[in-house]
Structure formats: C-alpha cells, structure tokens
Amino acid sequence: SSSSSSSSSSPSAADAGRCAFLGEQHREYDPALLDAYFAERPALVARRVAEISAAGLKALSLFLLGKLPTEEKGRSTAESAAGYKEIIEGLGPAFMKVAQTLSTRADLIGDAMAAELGTLQDRAKPFT
C-alpha cells in the first residue's frame, strides 16, 4: 500500500482531518476561510498561544541556565541542545520544519545545536 493515494481511494487520517476542518471543497490555502474559522474559536487560539508561550519560557530558562558558569560546560551545551529539541518536537510540525532548516546552519546556531536538531531530519518522533 502506497502512502500517496489517489483521489478515488479513502483519505488518510490527515486528509480526513483537513477535510473536516475546511470542508471537502476547500483544499487550497484560503486566508479568509482560516480567519473565519479561528475567529469563531478564540479558546482554541488562546490555548495554542499559551502552548507556544510556555515553550518559549522553557527555552528561555534553558538559555539562561546555559549562561551560568558550570564545571562541565560541554555537557551543559549538549543537554541544552537536547532540551531545545524536545521543546521543538512538542510544538509540532511547523516548528520542526524550521528546526530542520536551522540544523543545516551550524554557523548560526553552533555545532552542538546543529547536531541535535539534525536528528530531526531522519529520527523525528511521529505525530499523533
């Protein structure tokens, strides 16, 4: 069974979710439709903003803890990188895609972070 299915076969779980969300006729990006959908669901938007904010605070705490002097600075960097990766995995596929792209830029994020985020290229946890 192939992962790419034709339009005549039954939709995947992701396609079914998208169809339930947008309706069968809306498979293209439509900002007005998305705006209307989320305007009617402020609690959903607030929950996602809270999730992203909490992840940002967790990342900030890792950053600040990494700035503290430690005896094992190299180990601290690796642990921080693993912590950032865990945060990113929890935020979902859009954030993981950004992290995958950043993993190719060790000149911007450092070798330890690039190596850790690089594991998202081929060893990312599946989404449920």
Characterization of this structure:
The protein has helices spanning 13-22, 31-39, 42-67, 73-91, 93-102, 106-109, 111-122. By secondary structure, the chain is mainly alpha-helical. The radius of gyration is 19 Å and the shape is globular.
Shape: globular
The SSE string, one letter per element, is HHHHHHH
Radius of gyration: 19 Å
Q: By helix and strand content, what is the structural category?
A: mainly alpha
**Low-confidence spans:** 1-18
Average pLDDT metric:
78
Strand content: under 5%
Helix count, DSSP H or I runs of 4 or more residues: 7
Helix content: over 70%
What gap, in angstroms, lies between the N and C termini?
Answer: 20 Å
Largest sheet: none
Structure summary, number of beta strands: 0
How does the SSE layout of this entry go?
Layout: H1 13-22, H2 31-39, H3 42-67, H4 73-91, H5 93-102, H6 106-109, H7 111-122
Helix pairs in contact: 3-4, 4-5, 4-7, 5-7
Task: State the main characteristics.
single chain; 70% helix; globular; 128 residues; mainly alpha
Summarize the structure.
This protein has helices at 13-22, 31-39, 42-67, 73-91, 93-102, 106-109, 111-122. The chain has 128 residues and is mainly α.
